[in-house]
Amino acid sequence: MDRRSEYYSAASRLTYVAHFFGLTALILILIWLLHYRGGLNYESNNPDLVFNVHPFLMFFSLIFLGGEAMMAYKTVRATHGVRKSVHMLVHLLAIVLAIVGISAAFKYHDMIYKEDVYSLHSWIGITTICMFCLQLSPHQHESRLLNFTGLAILFFGIFVDLSVALGYYTFYSGY
After folding, report:
1. Sequence-distant contacts of 157-160: CB under 8 A, at least 24 apart
2. How far apart are CA 4 and CA 91, in angstroms?
3. Are 15 and 75 in contact (CB under 8 A)?
4. What is the tens place of the pLDDT at every residue in 19-64?
5. Can you tell me the distance from the alpha carbon of 117 to that of 130, in angstroms, rounded to the nearest whole number?
6. Does pLDDT of 144 surpass 70?
7. What secondary structure letter does DSSP report for 143?
8. Sign (positive/negative) of CA torsion 123, 128, 132, 137?
9. Number of C-alpha atoms within 13 angstroms, CB side, residue 103?
10. How far is residue 53's CA from residue 72's CA, in Å, rounded to a whole number?
11. How far apart are CA 132 and CA 125, in angstroms?
């Protein structure tokens, strides 16, 4: 067994764990939105149902699909060109879904007559989307800087989620 096949074997075991946790989080978000928050519907006249599209699509696109794209680039057993194509297509799907998720938040704010982009969450989120779009630039070449950018985007996505949790905590705890 050569060194490359050992890498694939080890990587595939770790990706099973990552897929498990990603799918578990996705299922928990869907249970939360469908059972406890009443569902999600972008075309609804109910602003809460429109807003529920935002957390689902932002998690699904930037965190789940972003992680899947990173794992696909390193673990798919195919030629380098095929791995890059799969990686790029999953990222492209993620950015399209993220844009729909952001538009759901703007639509919600329009429906309840609330200002847009007023919180730390909003600004970190917009920064994350901008970094994501810059990564898809056709003038980028494979480099350590681009790999760092992909990892930074994933961490920014996690920070955006944590900023929501911090906002809820401070709002409901009276600070």
Report:
1. 157/58, 157/62, 157/63, 157/66, 157/128, 158/63, 159/124, 160/58, 160/62, 160/121, 160/124, 160/125, 160/128
2. 25
3. yes
4. 999 999 999 999 999 999 999 999 999 999 999 999 999 999 988 9
5. 14
6. no
7. -
8. positive
9. 9
10. 26
11. 10
How confident is the model at residue 74, as a pLDDT? 80
Q: What does the alpha-carbon distance between residue 2 and residue 90 come to, in Å, rounded to a whole number? A: 29
Class of domain 3-173: mainly alpha
Report pTM.
0.83
Task: Pull the structure tokens for residue 42.
Answer: 């972008």
Which residue is it, tokens 């994933």? 154
Query: What single-letter amino acid sits at 165?
Result: A
Q: Tell me, what's the pLDDT at 1?
A: 47
Q: Are 143 and 56 in contact (CB under 8 A)?
A: no
Delimit the domains of the chain by residue range: 3-173
| 137 HSE (CA, 13 A, CB side) | 12
CB 136 within 8 A of CB 95: yes
* 3-state SS class at 144: helix
